[in-house]
Every structure is written in structure tokens, then in C-alpha cells.
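Researcher: Here's my situation. A collaborator sent me these components and asked whether they could plausibly form a single complex. I don't have experimental data yet, so a predicted model of the whole assembly would be a useful starting point for our discussion.
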Amino acid sequence: MLEWRWVRRLTLRLRTLVRRDRVERELDEEFRFHIEERTALEISRGLSPLDARRVALRAMNGIDQRKEECRDERRMQVVEHVIRDVRYGFRSLARSPGFAIAALVSLALGIGANTAIFSIIDKLLLESLPVERPRELVLLNPTGWRNGWTAGSRTWSYQAYRGLRERQRVFTGLLADRTDAVNLTVDGATQRAIASIVSGNYFDVLGVRAFRGRVLTDDDDRVRRGHPVVVLSHGFWVERLGSRAEIVGQTVRVGGRPFTVIGISEQGFNGLEVGGSVDVFVPTMMLPDVVTYGEALDARNAYIFQVYGRLEPGVSRQQAEAQLQPLYPIELERDVAAMGGRGPTDDRWRQGQIRLDDGHRGTSGLRRDLETPLTALMAMTVVLLLIACANIAGLQTARASARVREISIRLAMGASRGRVVQQLLTESALIAALGALAGVWVAWFTVRLLVAEMGETAGRLQLVTTFLDTRVLVLTFTFAVATGVLFGLLPALFATRPAVWSGLKTGITADLGGHVRLRRLLVTVQLALSLVLVTASGLFGRTLINLRRADTGFETDRLIQFQLNTGAAGYDRARSEAFLHLILDDVQRLPGVGQATFAVAPVLSNALIGFGIDVEGYSAPGGRRARAVANAVAPGYFRIVGTPLIRGRDFSETDSARSRRVAIVSDAFVRTYLRDLDPIGRTIGLGYGGPNRLYHEIVGISKDARLNNLRDEPIPTFYLPYTQFDVLNSGFVLVRAKGDSELLRRPIEALVKRRDPALPVAEYATIDEQINRLLRPERLVAALSLAFALLATGLGAIGLYGVLAFSVARRTREIGVRMALGAGRGAVLRLVLRSVAGMVVVGIAAGAVLSLALGRSIESQLYGVRGRDLATLGAAAALLIAVALASAWLPARRASRVDPLRALRHE
Amino acid sequence: MSRPADLVQGTLDLLLLTIIALEPIHAWAISQRLKQVSGDALQVSDGSLYPALHKLEQEGWIRGDWKTTPNGRRAKFYSLTRPGRRALEREAAEWKRLAGAISHVVRLTET
């Protein structure tokens, strides 16, 4: 009964939407016409108009009641039909479970994969930040000259931010935000946490409210080091603090200094980095207390803050950009003035401009990394869905043709064509709905898998909890039903075509040639699309293998690195150096450790520092400076890491802050800048001219190493002794283990904790782990594309098998005749295989053309293999041919075993 | 449902289909023709006609089209569809079979 009421309400609603007005109007008009005619009749019989009308109305026996009866009749019919069709649909699906399962699985996989990838794309690439009116947000992007400490390209110094904020008139608010890792101590336990160091108006400009307590305001950001207050993010509060309500008002320590927690920010808000996860929000004025570069608040050349503005309503981005432009030169003049005599020598810096970038999606490193892979995957899932649809269409066609007899009987019995089509469509819709449900499950599962695979880089993407949002769900269901209806409609219309069933009536076997042709076409398309997916998967797989085999230029085996963030623990330079030495000594004394060394930038983390330098003996074209990346390392680094020196000497303990400045350069550095010269003894100049320029003498040449990532060719690199490097607030200890590197983690953490309990070991990883982390996008793409390719091939094989089995069954008599006339088994086998060959040749050829055409577009994602790699394409084609032959084998064998006598007698 | 009590289930449908089969016709004219041909033997109230017509339309056996009557009024003209014609043949045959059987039985009791 429940089901009935539900269906009734649903159809009622549908009718209300679609036709109700018209039906009602017509009903009114029909009744009015009747009353008027009857009245006229009664008047002509001699009644007064008033009496005539009364008689006419009485004859209707209650107009409204009659109307309701009419409505009921209509409703009942629709409802009864739907119920009957659904019941019938279930029964007939249960009668052919093979078809039902194949169709359901095809749809579920096609829809599931699409929903999963789309959910992630939606979250990462399309969705706006969870703030008020995100479309009004812009990110201020300075173009042109800068010199100093630049954390990313779209960054500003705090002083420039203040200047802009005071003078601008186009934003309702302008906020500054810098995200960095800090040490956060809650209840005596210290952990690494992500802090957003934000201007006081941050929450106000974004329109983000407090979940508990209150958020920061401008009044919390006025006096330098005068506002020890923090807001915790909802995610941090739930995940790390177990949703303790009493935390608001309590004291925590950030960078060693006590802060009062004034509130928890709104649920779902994780800062302006999508895929990142801010744990704690700190006022900018407190910067010196939580990080080591407190002076950056005054330094005009510390470009470390992102600046977001909220446009005044009605002001376009272009207008705002134009109005903002005159303010930029003021800030630039001040930057250059602050450099004294060390500023740029030419005028090019005056060409700098402010661009306003779309800010509604925030920024995202994860997005940058995954945008192309995800787009490629989305394309693959769409192809997969097409293949699944082709499968459904093929299955439906097969089913419809197998049911021609049943359908024609129903038509002959007086069922209207519309009713039969409606019945067949109900079945399709039923499959679609069930497929969509299964698809949602597949999607949920896949997203969980993907997010787990993306690991901590995904941060608090929280896809699992939010991906079932209504939009994605509605999209999935719409698509599923559209697929089901579309691919159910065509075969249904075909099967009910008068020619088909009237043929049956006269006893002539219906011509099903059209069906077979359609199904052969579908199988051919499937083969072509499968080849595209298999080829792509092969290319991605080879890319992964090539990257894994790439020569890093150092020995990755049993190498461990971990970070000690001494600056965040409040250490000054001298204490940092002393502490690092202590730890190095301690670590080297651990059993199982070979040797240990130290570097400022970690390896294989895209973390080397970029410099503009002057190289003695090299003049760059156009007066530009040479570019190189650098690391600052301890003596023994090259030996321990395994990057041998080609010439010259290693750093030693005697290379100190007071001794002659030295450097070691890489082979690529020499090849690029000092090709025909003797590098040893030449100098590299760092910094911008004047007395502050630092000259380092080249004392050695190292082999090339891929220190940033595996993909890039070795770039010009130079190394400085860490003692001569200007900042030292954190460093990475590199340890070469003797045996199992896993066993070292606990002892190392224990010994660091013994030296300073407030200084946690961060980013502990073996280099193999680091490589895995680095190759995560590639692995994701390779694994998923392989899964998609396998699914596609499987679906194609099912389709091919289906069409062949059907056509062999249909041609049993023909085959019997042939055999009776002397055709051998071999000839029959050839007959069947020839029809397979047609589909395979056309499908593979079309797929090859398609693969070659699309190869170019994924080239940027590949490594060590070209987009149009014929070997991969050939292997993929061979695989598909093998699969096609395998799935053709059973039907072909059945055909060759046809007993001519029985086949002929059968007719 | 206010179906006339003395009409056998389905009989009204058969009558309506038969009348509509002759030519496209609107509901008012159907009610008049019903009275005319059955000589008031069948009492079908004006109102009870409509639910039956709408049921037949919903079933797909008849369809309604808005046309102009000879004296210039707009009215909904019902006509038979192909499934409707088949249904009519079926119901008529069924009716004849039933009527034959009943009159046979009745004749038996008379003799």
C-alpha cells in the first residue's frame, strides 16, 4: 500500500508539472458545453432559462463530483499502468538474469566511475570556497619585477598590503593570508600544525562565522605582538581535539608562546587553499611569535602574503583592476627605495602591474598537480560510459529482438504501440534506476579509494562526507535514466515497428538483419574506444615505469630524511646550528645507521631554492642574470647521499661563516654557464649588486642529480656550506641506514625528543616513500586508466560474444545447409571468424586513428614515451585482437559443431 | 463510481465505442444518441458519461480532438483509435457470445 501511495503521489506531481492546467481547462470546457447544450434543449422544450439551467445541472448529478471522477479515471490509469509495468519489468528481468546482470554492471561501472571522478573534479577544480558570495573574491597578482623572498608568484609584502588596503576604494575589504607550519602545543603535547597567519578582517571579508566562541576581528590585529589569541578550525577541533567544547577560552602554545583560544571557525571552512587544511588562525601582528621570520612584517622585500579582495557590488574585475593600477607604482617606489643602493639598475621594474585573478576557488597546489591528470581521467571515464552505453544498447537490442514474438502477440491482442513501448521503457528505466543506485555505491567506494590514495595531500577534502551532494546525485540519476530511456527507446520503437510484427502475423520470420547490423556497429565502436583506453593505459603505465627507473643521480636505497624545524621552536641561528650538530652526532651513534648528514632543502620534494646569480665569465643574453637552484648542505653530504664529486673538493668543517665563501656546482651548471672555461676558482655572485652582493668561489663540481623531482632534466644547481647560508631555521637530516630503514623511526624520534620535547620530528620518510609520494598523481592515473581499460575490454568482450552467439544461433539453419552441401568444420569456423575479423579490423583501425589523434593531448603527462608511440599502440591492438578472438571462440566452436541433419529437420 | 446499476460491467464501454465508431462525435451528442437509439431503455445520466469517456481515452482506445461544431461552438470530438477498433471488435464479439449464451439459457427456461 505504501508503494501505491508513493507512486500515486509521484504521478500526481508529474501531472501537476506537465499537463494539469490543460487537462483541467479541457474538462471545464467540455462540461460547460454540455450544460449549455442541455439548457438550450430544455428552453426549446418550453422551460424558462433559469429552470432549464437548473435541470441541466441536476442531470449532471453533481458537476464537481463528476469532474473528480474523470480525474480519478485518468490518474488510476497512469498509476495502474506504472505499477503493472514495474511488476512486469521485475518479473521479466528475473527471467533473464544474465541480461539484467550484464546491463546493471555496465551501467553501475560507467556511472560509478564518472560520478567518482566528477565528484573529485567538482570538489577540486570547480567548487567555490565555502564563503559568502565567493564570486566577489579576487586574488591580487603582482606582475613584473620583484627581488627578495618570494613565497609563490602571487604574493605581497605585508607593508605593500597595508599600503594598498589604506588607499584602495574598489574592495569592500582586502585581506592578507600566509599559511605556514607551526608547532602547536595543546595540553603539553606538541604537534606540527598548519597555521594561517591572517589580517584581522579575514573572517569578516570572507563572511565566515564562528562555530563556537568568536572569530578574529581587526581589534585582534592592531598591536605588534600584543594579541595572543587564536581561532581553531572546525576540522582541527574535531579531528585532533575530539570536539572538546571547553577548549574555547583555554590556553594553547603556538611556537612556544601561550595563546588564548577565542573560538572555532565555521564547519567546512579549511582556509583558502583547496585541499589544504588550516588548523589554526593567528593574527598577522603575532607573526614574530609563531615563526622565525618576524622581521618579515617590516621587510618590503618579503613577498609572503596572499592578498584577497572582495569587490564592491556592481564593480567588475576590469574596473577594479583599472582603478587599482595607480596604487602599484607607489608601492614599487617604496620597495626600491628600501633597497638603498642595492636596487635594480634599470627601469624595467616600473612596468609592474596588478592583475586581479579569479579568487572564488581559492588557491590549490593539489589542484595544480592534479588538474591535468584528472581531466585525462574524466575523458577516460566518459569513454568508458560510452562503451557501457553501447553495451546497454546492444543488450537491449538483443533482448528486443528475442522478444519480437512476445511483443507482436501483445500488439495483435490490441495493446497500443504506445503501451508496449511504455512497457519496454519501464523496463529500461528500471534497469537505469537500479544501475544508478549501484553506480552511487561504486562511486562512493571509488572516491574513498582515491582519497585514500591521494593520502595526506588530499588533506581535509572530505569528499567522503560531502560527495553525495544533491547536484552530483541528480546528475547521476538524470544521466542514468536518460541513458536507459534513450537506449531502451530505440530498440523498443524498432521492435514495435509495424513491419516487424505484421511480418510475424503472416507467418514469415521477421527480418532481424537490422538488429544484427546495429549490434555489429556497436561492437565495432566498443572495440575502437577500448583500444583508445588500452593504449592510453599503456602509455601511462610506461610513464610510471620510466619515472621509477629514472636515474636520480644519487643512491635512494635505505636513505631516510626528516625535518627539524628549529625556527618554529624558537631557536636562533646559533642554537639551531648547535642543535643540528647534536642530533647528527646522536643519530650516527644509533645502531643500524651508517652515516648522517644535513641539508636545508629536502630531496625530491620540489623544494630547492631558485636564485638569480652572476657567474664570473658568463654573460647572459639581454643582460639577464643566470638562473640556478641551490641547496645548503653539511660536509659529507655528497658522499653520504651518493652524488660523487667529479672535480675539486667537498665542503669541510673549516668552511665557516667567517672563512672564504665557497660553492660546489653541478655538471649541468658547468655545461650551461661555463662550458669552455675552467670552473674551479671562478665566482658566483648572489644578491643585487653593491656591497651586499655575496661572492662564492667554486671549489668543486658534482655529478648531476634530480633533487627536485624525477621528471625534470637536471637543472643548473649549486651548493653552499650551510654555515654560509643566510637563513637556517629548519633543516633536513639525511640518514643512510645499514639495514631496515623502517626500524630507525622510533629510535630517531626518541632521541630528538630527549634533546627537546617541544621539537617534533616532521616529514619523516624514506626516499622510496618520498618517490612514491612524488609519483602519486602518475600512479593514480596509471592505476585508474588500467582499471578503465580492463573494464572497457571486458565490456567489449561481452558485447562481441553476445552478438556472435546471437548470429550463430540465428544462422544455425544456414550453417546446416552449408555443412550438408559439404562444407567442413574449418570452413564454418572461417565463416564465423570472418565476420569477427570485419568488426575487429574496422574497430582497431578506427581506434588506432583515434589514439594517434588523442596521443598528442596527453603528451605533457608522459615521461620517456611519446604520445604517438607505435609500440604501445601495437601491443594494445594485439591484446584487443586476442581478447576478441577469445570471446569469438565459443560461438565459433558451437557453429562448427552444428549437426546438419538436426539443423535442417528443425525447420 | 456512479455507473448505472442496470448496465452490465463493460456494457457502457461497448455502447460508447460503438457510437463513437460511426463518426467523430462530442459527449453531448453521444448522450443524445444514447437516449435516441436505446429508446430511453438505458438510463445513462448526463454526468456518468464523462468518467467513462475519460477512462476510454486514457486507455488509448479513443482520442479527443477539439473541433468546431456546425453551429460554431468548440467541442471535444471523440474518435476511435486503432487499438480502440480492435478493442471494439473484441468486446462486441464477447458481448455477442455472452448475449447468445444468456438468451439461450433464458429460452431454455421458457420452454
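Model: Some features of this prediction you could bring to your collaborator: Residues 11-110 of chain B form a domain with the Arc Repressor Mutant, subunit A fold (CATH 1.10.10.10). Residues 82-110 of chain B form the longest helix (29 residues).
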